[in-house]
Amino acid sequence: MKKQGLIVLLFIFLVFPLASAYNSSGKAVIYYNEACSDCTIYIKKNLVVILRDYGITDIQLKDYINNDNYRKELVEFNKRNGIPMELQSHLTAVVNDRIILEGHVPESIIRDLLSQQEFDKVLVYQDEMKKEARTYKVWAFSGEIKEYPIRTPISEYIDWFKSEGSNRLQNSPVLSNFVSSSLLPLVIVTGLLDGINPCAFAVLLFFIAYLFTIKRARVSVIKMGVVYIAAIYLAYFLIGIGIMKALVITGQPHLMAKIGAILIIILGFINIKDYFKPELFPIHLKIPHQAVPHIKEWAYKATFPAASIMGFLVGLCTFPCSGGIYVAIIGLLSAKATYFNGIAYLLLYNLMFVMPLVVILLVTSSASRTVKLKEWRDRNARLMKLEFGVAMILIGFVILKWFV
Question: Which DSSP state fits 289?
Answer without folding.
Answer: G
